[in-house]
Specification:
elongated, 17 helices
């Protein structure tokens, strides 16, 4: 089976597969020998089946509604879960691998298109365009072009005469006002119910929801409506499954139930107290096997109830584990975290990113990064956006390999505030734990994949994509070689790997090899850097990918005490939500204040004394939902659009960040040039490592370092006249849940000295057209081969404070050694910093060239682009014509129409360059950006 996804975020291929399977079911005639007027399809039979079970009989009960009934009708959830499963298996008979998507009860406009679920009503309330129109595509009144796979005998989407004059004929719809859809807050109330009875009632009828929304019941009428006194098919249970939206609607209900079950209710189902035939061990008609005494009191023309005896007897209790039935949802990802606990992690973090706080070891910085990941996952759950199952293990080797779970057996679970599996639970469990020993990377990868990634939910469904984030600061020093694991053998695991440290201790080829063992995504999976900001980007990127978010921007702001600044970004109609994090690198919440402003300056979040000023937007229409948490100097925000209208969503947004500011009178304006310097590239100016030799309170802030600019994008930071105060960095990462999917990826994650890299802008947008109007790029590469510098260094020549006695294979602290060497030679820490261009050749993809790479190490690229998004545009065949464009006014995937909605992106990505003669340890480290694998 697989993963059921939000219908708005299906690819074109996934959409067509679902629609095609539906059409094939409508064309699958059950009784081909009957006169044509009496023939009915498998689709029609499912419609009739849904009607028949609403007045059926069972032993001792003459009239039972097996799938509905309100209070005490517990089988509403379980019966429909199995009905959807039967339907999905029918779809898969015609299109193998197709999965049933869900409609999330938000504005259905993105899915009600001619080539997906069809539009709203036409003349007489009847759908007359698309694949679910009364006439087949390209015939009668239907202008939609017919696909090649359209069945020759299917004249249109029509219900046969067996359903009577009320329901026979074309599909009818009449959608309601967006304001009548369930709000995200109302859905959250349903998820917060503490027992099965209340949860089932909340989902079915809105009982216990304030203000009342009828949820399931109301959504049937919302789609079906009443057009001049004529009910749409979704409005009545006798015919509602005729509309394909029925299945997406109920799939969403099943998803919410599955999320509620994950949250500590996995086995809950009443055995008593409900209506007849609705208890835990009761059979679900018509799936009763060969058990006698069950049948229906309803006749739907000549349509017969299918013989389901081959499925065996199915009870309500048999549906409680949806994964055991073979499927899951994209809002319930599984992530395993592998944390290096070897002796080399006792070395200092080379770049502390603050001028006042004490330096920390890489071990402490890494622990902070995991805690931040868990905080963000907690916030995702609190918002209702995603329920993340995660576990954490440390790895090292002493007398033998040690893979130690941080949380109690089984070592993983739902990440939730106030439980053991949370940021606070992790911090408590890690208190006092030190680092020592060697680095068994290959063995650790297999162990964590087996115990934290594959193990949850018994490993089912087998084709679910799962995630593993492995952070290490060094190279493999013990255990099995990575060559013992074939590339791609962890077929369903997307591995994210980070090499935390400098070129002196990180084996770049090994990190690439770790990632190559799993599944390739169209987002960054290999990370390198030597500061805590890169750790934040690494774990944030892994979580974002797991919950379906894409990068928007990731600036680093160095701020003086008393300053505040704004991070500007934009929302388009393609965006459904934002994951926003801001980490003050002193990890002290008392020093930081944050505000989030939406379009028109509306304050949607603020941790200040004045409270929230929404400027009246939420008094006239739904506002975006904001869920926030602040801990250890970190702001974690989930912003979801819900049914907020365009004027409350589409447009410019601002995240305000203030450092030690009592009043907002010290604004500093960041520049795009600063944003383009990737966080992983280290400090843009000033000393790189020798700062570690200076007491924290005596260090010079980077913004106070004055030197000649190297190019137009190397601008001197602006001043707010507070340069005498202490300074600290804040690392901001913004991701979007969006159909405007753009990413920047290198054509290979490893290159050789003298070779080239191409960083390609990959467009996997799900509808609409993005047009780039402006762009800029900054390429930062090493100037010194640190691995060669350390190659001949003898431990006996090192001062005592630079040694790492607890490390296996790394006898020195790279940060301390480099600090001493840089103090002797200031050019040691210098990087090659240059302007790059986003270009396009002959209509091909936009990309950045990095040619003639001369020094081993990591190449970092930052790209800014801005343009417009046309949600109704379509890509022109062949792209954007010929020539060698420079990114100053061309379409990402075809020219757009109309004025469009402004958007911007800032991407930063890295790739490693190996010394001549260094054998790449990751065959397959090259990547193709032209094929989607996620």
């Amino acid at each position: 089976m697989g993963v059921r996804k939000n219908a708005k975020f299906l690819t074109d291929v996934e959409r067509e597969a679902f629609v095609r399977a539906c059409v094939m079911l409508k064309a699958e005639i059950i009784n081909p020998g009957a006169p044509s007027a009496q023939q009915y399809s498998r689709w029609d039979q499912l419609v009739a089946e849904h009607q028949m079970i609403q007045n059926a009989f069972a032993p001792g009960a003459g009239s039972v509604n097996f799938g509905h009934g309100g209070s005490g009708a517990f089988s509403f959830l379980s019966w429909h879960r199995y009905f959807l499963l039967v339907f999905e298996r029918d779809l898969q008979r015609h299109v193998p691998g197709v999965m049933l998507p869900y409609w999330d009860w938000q504005d259905p406009a993105p899915i009600m298109t001619d080539t997906f679920l069809g539009p709203n009503n036409g003349a007489g309330g009847v759908v007359r365009r698309g694949y679910f129109a009364i006439d087949a595509p390209g015939t009668g009144t239907n202008p939609t072009a017919a696909p090649l796979w359209w069945p020759a005998g299917l004249v249109g989407w029509r219900l046969p005469a067996a359903f009577g004059s009320i329901w026979q004929g074309g599909l009818r719809r009449s959608t309601g006002a967006l304001s009548n859809l369930p709000t995200l807050g109302q859905i959250a109330q349903a998820l917060a119910k503490t027992n099965y009875r209340d949860h089932q009632l909340a989902l079915e009828s809105g009982s216990g929801i304030s203000p009342l929304n009828q949820m399931h019941n109301g959504m049937h009428g919302w789609i079906g409506g009443n057009n001049g006194g004529t009910l749409g098919h979704m409005s009545h249970p006798d015919a509602s499954p005729f509309d394909p939206i029925f299945y997406l609607h109920h799939c969403n209900i099943d998803r919410l139930w599955a999320m509620w079950q994950l949250d500590g209710h996995a086995t809950e189902y009443p055995s008593t107290g409900g209506r007849s035939q609705h208890h835990r061990n009761d059979l679900m008609y018509p799936w009763v096997g060969t058990t006698a005494g069950y049948g229906t009191n309803v006749t739907v023309g000549n349509i017969a109830m299918p013989d389901y005896s081959a499925l065996g007897a199915q009870r309500n209790v048999d549906t409680l584990d949806h994964r055991a039935l073979g499927y899951t949802y994209d809002t319930m990802p599984i992530v395993g975290i592998a944390l290096d606990r070897t002796g080399s992690m006792n070395g200092l973090t080379p770049d502390p990113m603050t001028s006042g706080a004490a330096d920390v070891s890489k071990w402490e910085a890494a622990k902070r990064g995991v805690a931040a990941f868990l905080q963000d996952a907690e916030n995702a759950r609190a918002s209702g956006e995603a329920y993340v199952t995660a576990g954490v293990k440390t790895f090292r080797s002493l007398a033998g390999n040690l893979f130690e779970a941080v949380f109690a057996a089984p070592g993983y679970g739902l990440v939730k505030t106030g439980t053991q599996i949370s940021a606070s639970g992790f911090t408590t469990a890690m208190t006092g734990l030190g680092a020592a020993g060697g680095t068994p990377l290959a063995d650790a990868l297999l162990d964590i994949n087996t115990t934290l990634v594959d193990a949850p939910a018994g490993g089912v469904p087998a084709d679910e994509q799962r995630y593993l984030a492995l952070l290490t600061d060094g190279m493999l020093t013990s255990g099995a070689p990575l060559s013992s694991i074939p590339n791609g053998s962890l077929a369903r695991t997307a591995v994210f790997g980070m090499g935390f440290g400098t070129g002196a201790e990180v084996d770049y080829a090994t990190i690439a090899s770790l990632v190559a063992k799993g599944r390739t995504l169209t987002t960054q999976q290999v990370f390198h850097g030597e500061n805590a900001g890169t750790i934040d980007k690494f774990f944030g990127g892994a979580l974002a990918a797991a919950i379906g978010y894409s990068p928007v921007t990731d600036p680093v702001l160095e701020m003086f005490a008393g300053e505040f600044s704004h991070v500007d970004f934009s929302a388009t109609s393609a965006d459904d939500g934002f994951l926003i994090t801001a980490q003050g690198m002193d990890f002290d919440s008392a020093n930081w204040r944050f505000q989030l402003h939406g379009p028109g300056g509306v304050l949607l979040y603020g941790d200040h004394e004045g409270g929230h000023d929404h400027d009246g937007c939420d008094h006239c229409c739904p506002s975006p939902q904001v869920t926030a948490s602040v801990s250890e100097g970190r702001l974690s925000l989930i912003v979801r659009r819900g049914n907020a209208p365009a004027h409350c969503w589409v447009g410019g947004w601002q995240l305000m960040v203030a450092y030690k500011a009592r009043r907002f009178d010290g604004m500093v304006m960041p520049q795009i040039a600063d944003w383009l310097y990737p966080v992983a590239a280290g400090p843009a100016r000033g000393a790189r490592w020798s700062r570690l030799l200076v007491a924290p309170d005596k260090r010079v802030a980077r913004r106070n370092v004055v030197r000649r600019s190297r190019h137009a994008l190397d601008a001197q930071p602006l001043s707010s006249n507070r340069s005498g105060a202490d300074a600290c960095d804040v690392v901001v990462n913004i991701y979007a849940r969006t159909r405007l999917r753009l990413s920047l990826v290198p054509d290979k994650v490893l290159a050789g000295v003298g070779g080239d890299l191409n960083f390609e802008l990959v467009d996997l947008s799900l509808g609409g057209v993005a047009t780039v109007h402006h762009s800029a790029a900054r390429l930062v590469s090493p100037s010194v081969d640190l691995a060669a510098l350390f190659g001949g260094m003898k431990p006996s020549s090192l001062p005592r404070e630079q040694k790492l006695d607890a490390a296996d294979g790394l006898p020195f602290d790279p940060a301390r050694v480099l600090a001493t060497l840089e103090k002797r030679s200031r050019t040691l820490g210098a990087s090659k910093d240059q302007v790059a261009n986003l270009v396009q050749h002959h209509g091909g993809p936009w990309h950045v060239h990095a040619k003639g790479l001369g020094v081993p190490g990591v190449v970092h690229l930052g790209v800014w682009l801005s343009g417009t998004y046309d949600p109704l545009g379509t890509a022109a065949a062949g792209g954007h014509g010929g020539g060698h464009s420079t990114g100053q006014g061309g379409a990402v995937h075809g020219p757009g129409g109309g004025e469009g909605e402004p958007f911007s992106r800032v991407f930063s990505v890295s790739a490693a360059v190996l010394a001549q003669g260094t054998p790449p340890k990751a065959a397959g480290a090259s990547r193709s950006t032209g094929k989607r694998k996620d």
